[in-house]
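Would you mind writing out a protein's amino acid sequence and the numbers that encode its backbone to help me picture the idea?
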Amino acid sequence: MGGRKIPHEAVMVREVAEHLGGRARVLDLTLGGGGHGEALLDSGVGRLVGLDRDPGAVAIASARLARFGDRFAGLVGEFSNPPNEPVDGVLYDLGVSSMQLDDAERGFSYRHNGPLDMRMGAGGTSAKDLVNRSPEEELSRVLWDFGEERHARRVARAIVRARSRRPIETTDELAAVVASAVGRRRGGPHPARRTFQALRMAVNRELEELAASLPRAVELLTPGGRIVVIAYHSLEDRIVKRFFMSEKRLVALTKKPARALQSEVERNPRARSARLRAAERVEDAA
């Protein structure tokens, strides 16, 4: 894994640096390849602690950021359990990274054939387990709740029918089952896109992790500290929006989510769906 090149640039780096640049201590809870971390350290952040549940990502980012010496520390862990130290800024860049999508052995993408895994960290239930063991009703619920797949029942039924003949073990096999169930529109998105999103989010408990992590991040923020979240679809963004509105210790800095400039979208297509929200912690009420 360490031999792979770092993929395209991180999303909305300029906007992240505008909110968090130059601060004394920043916690990057989704370190990934270290793109945001590098920009923040270059902007004058005094110390950056980066957390990621993927050990491979931490290794790649640590190599990339080695030039900053002890101003950077990389840790392996889930962001629902951040290091317990006060910080002046917290960053989340949610979802799956290009490093994970492009590695066929990780099983995240319908574009690359590989084992049906999708785990961001070590251990736990894989997508293969979920697809081959879950009851039809549970599969349908996962596809609807996490993928907003309008053909959830039809896809779940097709999966159960296919696995009764033999286990579904690869990404190509699953993508073919979904395509056969819902069809494919010429020029449209891949019919398995929402299914793969839903399974990935369920396997990694992404929404539960986010909901558990946000209050803990606020606890770590010093007064005047800022929290920045980049989400890529409505499920994540809805959790962040509602949390920012309900958390009395936060004042929103973005009335509506900021979007990437068109020039960035043209250079980096992943930025098209990015939505950035930022908030600042205020003094606790007496």
